[in-house]
Amino acid sequence: MNSGSHFGCCNVTSKFATLALFYQHNINHTTRLGIWRIEEPEAFFLEKVPIKKEVTHPYKRLQHLAGRYLLPTLFDDFPLEEIMVADTRKPYLPGEKYHFSVSHSGNFAAAIASRDKRVGLDIELVSPRIEKIAHKFLSLEEKAFLQQWRLFDLLQQELTTVMWSSKEALFKWYGDGQVDFRQHMQLNGPLNYASNEWMTLPFLFKKEEAVPVTLHARIFEPLVLAYVIT
Ligand SMILES: CC(C)(COP(=O)(O)OP(=O)(O)OC[C@H]1O[C@@H](n2cnc3c(N)ncnc32)[C@H](O)[C@@H]1OP(=O)(O)O)[C@@H](O)C(=O)NCCC(=O)NCCS
C-alpha cells in the first residue's frame, strides 16, 4: 500500500485559481481516494460536473458538486455523466467501469473510486455531539470497548466518530439500506489505534450471513475518514 500525500499533493488549475486536494491516497493500482477542502464557488465545480440531482439547499449543492468533482480528479476517465442513482439513493455507474462512494462533512468532500472492488467511504467532522447519539449506533460491547479511552475526551470523541464513520462507510458499501447499525455491524476485535496513521478495524457485517470485513480509518484533525474495500 502506498502512503498518502497530505496538503496540496495535487494541483488543479482552473480559471478560478490554482487549487489543491487536501489529501490523496492511492490505495493500490486500481483504487484511489481523496479529500477535497471546499473553498471554491459553485461555478468552479460546474465546469466539470453535470448536475442531475435536485439539490435545493445551496451549501448541500456545493458539497454534492465537490464530491462528484473529486471522482474524475482521482481517475481522469471517470464518466461522471453516466452516474445513475438507485432507489436506495446509492449512486452507481450502470456498466460498473468504476465502483465509487462519496461523502461530505462541513467544508470537506471525499470520494473513493475503484476499477474492480466494491467500496464504501465516509467522512465526519469530530464534534462532542457524537457522544449524544452514540447509543444509537454502538452495541453494548462496543460502548464498553470505547470506555477505555474515557479519560481522554478528544481521543474518545475521535474514536467514537471513527466507529460512526466506519458504520456509515459499511452502510454505503452494502448499498441496499435497511441496516441496523448496532445489530448488523459489529466491531470484531481490537482496533490498532495510531495517531496520523491508517488504523484497521475488524468488523462483522451480519445482515444475511456473517461476513468479516476490514475497515480502514484515519483521524485528520478536524475530521475522520473511514473506508471499506472488498
Ligand atoms: C445515506 C447516508 C449513509 C448518508 O450519510 P450522510 O453522513 O448523511 O452523508 P454523506 O455526505 O456522508 O453521504 C452522502 C452521499 O452518500 C451517497 N449515498 C446516499 N445514499 C446511499 C446509499 N443508500 N448507499 C450508498 N451511498 C449512498 C451519495 O453519494 C450521497 O452523496 P450525493 O447525493 O451528493 O452523491 C445516511 O444518510 C444514512 O441513511 N445512514 C443510515 C442511517 C441509519 O440507519 N442510522 C442508524 C443508526 S443511527
Description:
The protein has 230 residues and is of the alpha+beta class. It folds into two domains: 5-117, Alpha-Beta Complex (Ribosomal Protein L22, Chain A); 126-217. 26% of the residues lie in helices and 32% in strands. It is built from five helices and 14 strands. Strands 1-4-5-9-8 form a five-stranded antiparallel beta sheet. Strand 6 and strand 7 form a beta hairpin. Mean pLDDT is 90; it is low at 7-18. The chain binds coenzyme A. The site of coenzyme A (COA) has 19 residues, from helix 2, strand 8, helix 3 and helix 5.
Task: Tag the structure with descriptive keywords.
binds coenzyme A, 230 residues, alpha+beta, Ribosomal Protein L22, Chain A, 2 domains
Distance between the termini: 15 Å
Largest sheet: 5 strands, antiparallel
Q: Describe the strand arrangement of the main beta sheet, using strand numbers.
A: 1-4-5-9-8
Mean pLDDT: 90
Percent in strands: 25-35%
Determine Rg (CA atoms, Å).
17 Å
* Shape annotation: globular
Number of domains: 2
Number of strands: 14
Sequence stretches where pLDDT stays below 50 over 5 or more residues: 7-18
Number of helices: 5
- CATH architecture annotation of the largest domain: Alpha-Beta Complex
CATH hierarchy class name of the largest domain: Alpha Beta
